[in-house]
Design brief:
This protein is about 75% helix and about 0% strand. The chain is an all-alpha fold and about 230 residues long. The radius of gyration is 17 Å and the shape is globular.
Amino acid sequence: MANLTSVEFVKRIKQEMQTFHKLRINHPFVKAVSSGTASMEHIRKWALQDYQFRRIVPRIVMLRYLQCSDLEIQRKLFEIVEEETRGLATGTAGHNELFFRFAGSLGLSQEQLETVEIAPASAAHAYYVELVNYILPWFVVISVQVCAEGSFAPAAAALGQGFIKHYGMKPEAVKFFTVHSEADEDHSSFAEEVAIKYLHSPALQEQTRQATWRRLELLYDTWTVAE
């Protein structure tokens, strides 16, 4: 394969993502919510495990911020920290607060979210997203977000629509999903900027590709929750 420019690589990996075997938009849980066939008990179990990643996102983004050696990109990373914790960019609330509202509409308390036993798949993903900050170049870690966050936006939109249409939830209760359908597209675009600026060698591009596929697999598996 001919060497790709960083721009060509970003275009290529986004194309490859569309046919990846584990995309959340194609997950059975998303399809069940979209068709109204998921039980409320299944949704509650899913929410309890999904929160196990949501709760650590601010810390993970801060780790990326601390590892970053590019001052311009570091500034943008801090803006993402502020969006995750306070919802400044979208004019809403911290993303965990939005998730608490969603969980509350399911009858789940914050205490239940914080104390549930974490499933092996959820733990594996949580460990991985922290580990890569110490073993991969910071710009590779951020470049993985091209597909990690880029693939969440359509799944979040589908879930939000399904919860409103089939489960009688109010738009305010599912704002976590509607906000992410927009915010994650922005974050994915930011990750593209980083990838284009730094991923010029075949070795770095391949490292990013492998980390991307592993991350997408782990994200998909965390959503496979027994009913």
